[in-house]
Structures are given as C-alpha cells and as structure tokens.
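Q: Hi! Curious about what UPF0235 protein GCM10011395_23910 looks like structurally. Here's the sequence.
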Amino acid sequence: MSRIKHTMPPRDDLERLIDAHGHLTIRATPNAGTNAIRLPAMGAPGVVNVRTTVTPEDGKANDAVLALLVKALGCPRSALTLVRGATARDKVIHIAR
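A: Let's find out. The predicted structure is below.
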C-alpha cells in the first residue's frame, strides 16, 4: 500500500488569498488521488483548490480539508471555521488571527 502524498504551497502565498474579513474561498475535490492544495493561476479569481482523498460522507471530507489547511497555514484547528458550503464543493473558511 502506498503512502498518500501531500502537496502544499508556501504559507505566505496562501495567506495572501485571505481577505480583510479573514475569509478564504476554496473549491474542494473529494475522492482525489492525492491530498493537495493548489493556488489559483495568475489573473484567475482567488479560489484555492483543495483536493483530498477522503470520501464526502458525514463531514469527513470537510474535516480533511480543514486539516490540510491547518497544516499549510501552520495554525491550530480551532482557528478555522467553515462559514459556508458544508455540503457544497465551493466553501468559505474563516481564519481567526
């Protein structure tokens, strides 16, 4: 069995996408082949693509997405709150500073 790899962007690049209210807009992709956080391309809207290998049942994929963001941002789990999109692919996460 192979280990699941994690691909993370630099923390500073990810923090630049957090708006003045502390919100980060993401697009989640469950059942992906790898866990990864991908920044938007230059000139594209500021939506971060978060891919996770977890299936979207009973909120497990949301927990996995938040765990990836915790690792990428280097903040405690209690600093992240899912504001919008619990059952949708497009989500808004509040990051307390």
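A: A fun detail: The beta strands are 6-7, 23-29, 35-38, 48-51, 80-84, 90-95.
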